[in-house]
Design goal:
The complex is a heterotrimer of chains A (361), B (283) and C (260). Chain A is globular. The two termini of chain A are 44 Å apart. Chain A is of the alpha+beta class. In chain A, a hairpin with an 8-residue loop joins strand 2 and strand 3. Chain A is built from twelve helices and four strands. Chain A has three domains: 74 residues, no CATH class; 201 residues, no CATH class; 31 residues. Chain B is of the alpha/beta class and 283 residues long. Helix content of chain B is 26%, strand content 18%. In chain B, helix 1 crosses helix 2. The two termini of chain B are 20 Å apart. The mean pLDDT of chain B is 93. With 260 residues, chain C is an alpha/beta fold. In chain C, helix 4 packs across helix 5, helix 4 packs parallel to helix 6 and helix 6 packs parallel to helix 7. Chain C is globular, with a radius of gyration of 18 Å. At the A-B interface, helix 1, helix 5, helix 11 and helix 12 of A face helix 3 and strand 11 of B.
């Protein structure tokens, strides 16, 4: 006599126990510390701070530990946590011109005011696996002088703006508040503030693919990297009780300003157009991808026909969030046997009917 | 069997903060005032992934109170892993009584089924919805479907039904079968088998639908007309089986098909575990 | 009883620009019941923009289109709500596009294409919808056996005839055609026009047809309007205008056919 399988609860408890063991791995190996992850896997930490939408390197490191290194799971932990946090206020817009520079490069001019500062980057390395890393590395710490660039220098964009060659940042009519997509559901067409917010927290892989498509003929933006910088910037907050802003700390950011295809018509002289990317931590690939997609999504503003997926707001913005995409793709693992049963029954009926019709003829 | 799990400290009652609950309740009120209309809401990240019931969970979290009794089912059963997980989540964050008996629950959160047992006026069904937009497969752009709903312009759906009949001799929706709510809005009833659609029509219970990932809430108030789409000469029909339930003998419930051995021997058993138990106990 | 002196369609002061470019400039004309008017001109004359403005497929900058509707009485088309405009476009009006893919659903059977308007209006009997589809396929001389085939399997001429059927199924009073024969072989063009002329007479249709081909105008239209650079430069009975053009531009158009 068949007895329906019960005990889902026990099965789950066992599964969670196995998971904890898997995460810890062999007990002969020392446990990873959150500090180690934060210090030595900082690029991974940067990625999930962006997708998790919260600047807290320590928490991000913890999430990575808890998630066994799975970036999307770690992002999930951060976002779910973020959703419980109370909102204290809004900072003043970041003044990225006052970034304490670790790295600053431009592809548009050979030399720029302040110079090209290479900083720490894989760009100049050769990707040869370094087997010596199997052992602890003996590092020679050479004093870098904590110099960075702090004197004000002209940004590349401002130099072009002086000549009128680049579009000025337009304040939209009525100077509306930027949309917060975590408080207001996205509607299409979405304003640029909502789009940029969506892109910062977008899955890096998806964003990179879409950005790449713009360079392969799926929309034409002819981009040039005017300025990419990585460094620290101060966050200012003006609490309700005070009349002035206070500096509540510094965060690391990467900013990318792209110059794109010029646009103009008979009424207006043509100018270069912009794409913008801004992310937490050191994360150039994402910032650059973001700036390319930002520009592609501005197609309508410039009267460009919308033909490529990168230009289609609904396509890009609806599929960029990896919690949504991962959740829905993986939800297929959930039981679907009732809907499947429905399909089976329907298919059997249709086939039965068709066979009947054939034999009737 | 009724259970009370120890309520875990450190969370607000039902996990969501009160502001969020208020926001969801406002969306629910709007949804109830406009039966079948999809109300956008700013869905929160929940401890379960998008696509796994966060919409339903947010609705339940927004309406549940200390005195409520909660039932959670998936595919009609209480002990499928997803149902267990969600029930446990609410136990830990509210401490309310949970039950497997449909008759004793006043909030029933469900994935893919409506209980066989007739519902009454004091009950609220909360549906987990993957795709709230009934037109999505024929028109993916929200900018377009929003217009279609606003203008009650559903010709395209009927074209799809027409083509189904032309190609297959019948309408090929077997679950998530589109319905017209209150004669005005086309809605997706969630992936319940079409077998369950008639239960939506003029039900004494309040039906709430939550899509967390897609960020939409909609509702069917009690005693609302709900019609499954069809043609006059191709009327709506429900699934049927040739066998009774192998356990309780019912010929009126939706049956799961179970494969019991390597030769492919099949057994048909009620999907609704509580109903099956109740029927078996009665006979 | 409607006063017969009122035109079916009265277009006044219709203008539309795209940025600096003036596409249509203060165009005025009347279309009477059962009348066929051809709007001719070269590409860039504004004739298609004019037609699309009247059909509410694009929004003009200024002007009025007063239409004698069976459902709504006489109304300014641009003052209607979206819902009313949609209804009008599905019942009393028809629009045949230059390219079949703009006027048909290419991924849906011929029968469904014809039946769509009926279903939009609430027709819920599958058998009756098919009957109507069969009837109209026959009327446009397409074998009804092809009812379940996709338009992509039809020839260009057949696709245009299917478009016509799709529009006529709700028995509209006004049909607008935008270069319906371009891209078709000359013999196919002639067949299509003959068919349409026959149907228009049979059903008492009022027609606005946009074309750059004067031969099309000659075949179908009672009246002709000649456009250049967004303005009407000449109008009158088709035969008169073609046989004795007054405006230099019209003369140029007419003489170029003779030369060819």
């Amino acid at each position: 006599m068949y007895v329906a399988v019960k005990g889902g609860k026990n099965a789950i408890e066992n599964s969670l126990r196995l998971l904890a063991q898997k995460r810890r791995g062999s007990l002969k190996v020392p446990e990873l510390t959150v500090e180690q992850i934060q210090e030595q896997l900082s690029l991974g930490v940067a990625r999930i701070m962006n997708e998790g939408s919260i600047y807290d390197p320590e928490l991000a490191a913890l999430a990575l530990k808890q998630a066994q290194g799975d970036q999307v799971e770690a992002t999930f932990l951060l976002r779910a946590y973020r959703a419980t946090l109370p909102r204290l206020g809004f900072s003043a817009p970041l003044n990225t011109e006052q970034t304490h520079i670790s790295r600053r490069i431009s592809a548009t001019f050979k030399d720029i005011p302040g110079g090209q500062i290479l900083g720490p980057s894989y760009d100049y390395s050769q990707r040869l696996i370094d087997f010596s890393l199997f052992k602890d590395v003996q590092l020679e710490i050479v004093p870098t002088g904590e110099k960075g660039l702090t004197e004000p220098f002209a940004s590349v964009m401002s130099l072009l703006a002086k000549e009128g060659l680049i579009e000025l940042d337009q304040i939209p009519d009525g100077d509306p508040e930027p949309i917060d997509i975590t408080r207001t559901p996205l509607k299409f067409p979405a304003p640029r503030s909502a789009r940029l917010q969506n892109l910062i927290r977008a899955d890096e892989g998806f964003l990179l693919g879409v950005a790449y498509s713009t360079q392969r003929g799926y929309s034409f933006t002819h981009p040039f990297a005017a300025e990419i910088k990585y460094g620290e910037v101060a966050i200012e907050l003006k609490p309700e009780e005070l009349d002035f802003s206070i500096d509540i700390g510094d965060i690391e950011i990467t900013e990318c300003q792209m110059i794109n295809q010029f646009a103009g018509n008979n009424e207006q002289l043509p100018q270069f157009t912009k794409g913008y990317g801004l992310v937490f931590g050191h994360h150039e690939r994402k910032a650059m991808a973001m700036s390319l997609v930002d520009r592609a999504l501005r197609a309508e503003e410039f009267g460009e026909p919308i033909e490529a997926p990168a230009q289609m707001q609904e396509f890009v913005l609806s599929h960029s969030d990896n919690l949504e995409s991962s959740g829905f793709v993986q939800h297929l693992k959930l039981p679907h046997y009732v809907d499947f049963q429905s399909e089976l029954e329907l298919l059997r009926r249709i086939r039965g009917q068709m066979k009947q019709e054939v034999s009737d003829e | 069997m009724n259970e009370i799990e120890q309520r875990v400290e450190g969370f607000n009652f039902a996990y969501l903060d009160e502001q969020t609950k208020r926001m969801i309740r406002r969306a629910l009120l709007k949804a109830i005032a406009i039966p079948g209309y999809q109300v956008p809401f700013s869905s929160r990240e929940m401890p379960l992934p998008y696509g796994w019931g966060t919409g339903g969970i947010q609705i339940t979290a927004a309406i549940i109170g200390k005195k409520d009794t909660l039932k959670v089912i998936d595919q009609g059963a209480d002990d499928t892993v997803n149902a267990v997980n969600i029930r446990s989540f609410f136990s830990r964050t509210t401490g309310v009584i949970t039950t497997e008996k449909t008759s004793q629950a006043n909030i029933i959160q469900t994935r893919h089924r409506i209980p066989e047992q007739a519902l009454h006026e004091d009950q609220i069904m909360v549906f987990q919805v993957p795709v709230p937009e009934p037109l999505q497969d024929i028109e993916p752009l929200k900018a377009q479907t929003t217009k279609m709903h606003a203008l009650a312009d559903y010709g395209l759906m009927y074209v799809k039904l027409y083509e189904d009949i032309t190609q297959f001799g019948k309408i090929t929706f077997s679950y998530d079968y589109p319905v017209m709510v209150n004669g005005r809005y086309l809605a997706a009833p969630s992936p319940i088998p079409k077998f369950d659609n008639p239960k939506l029509h003029q039900s004494p219970a309040l039906m709430l639908f939550g899509a967390g990932r897609e960020k939409r809430i909609y509702a069917i108030p009690p005693y609302t007309d709900v019609q499954s789409l069809s043609f006059e000469d191709y009327p709506f029909e429900v699934q049927q089986w040739d066998h009774p339930c192998a356990i309780c003998g019912s010929r009126e419930s939706f049956l799961d098909e179970l494969i019991t051995d390597n030769d492919g021997t099949r057994m048909f058993v009620c999907a609704d575990s509580d109903y099956c138990q109740t029927q078996a106990d009665a006979s | 009883m409607k006063p017969i002196s009122q035109p079916l369609l009265k277009v006044s002061h219709l203008s539309k620009s795209y940025g600096q470019h003036v596409a249509v400039h203060k165009v005025e004309f009347d279309l009477g019941y059962g009348e066929v008017i051809a709007i001719v001109g070269e590409s860039g004359s504004g004739k298609t923009t004019l037609l699309k403005s009247i059909a509410c497929l694009t929004t003009p900058d200024s002007g009025e289109v007063i239409y004698q509707s069976e459902q709504f009485g006489d109304m300014d088309v641009f003052r209607l709500s979206s819902m009313q405009q949609r209804l009008l476009n599905r019942t009393e009006w028809g629009f045949v596009h230059q390219h079949a893919r703009d006027g048909l659903r290419m991924n849906v059977s011929a029968g469904a294409n014809i039946g769509e308007r009926l279903m939009s209006l609430g027709q819920r009997h599958y058998g009756k919808i098919r009957e109507q589809a069969r009837y109209w396929l026959d009327m446009v001389e397409i074998d009804p056996k092809r009812m379940d085939d996709l338009p992509s399997t039809f020839s260009g001429g057949m696709q245009q005839r299917l478009q016509i059927a799709r529009n006529l199924v709700t028995q509209p009073r006004l049909v607008m055609l935008d270069e319906p024969t371009s891209g078709l072989d000359v013999s196919v063009q002639a067949k299509l026009l003959d068919l349409f002329k026959k149907l228009a007479q049979q059903l008492g249709l009022s027609v606005l047809i946009v074309t750059h081909d004067l031969a099309v105008a000659r075949l179908l239209a009672d009246q002709m309007i000649v456009m250049q650079d967004g303005k009407i430069v000449e109008r009158g009975l088709t035969d008169q205008v073609l046989d004795d053009p007054q405006h230099p531009y019209t003369q140029l158009l007419v003489s170029s056919i003779i030369a060819a």
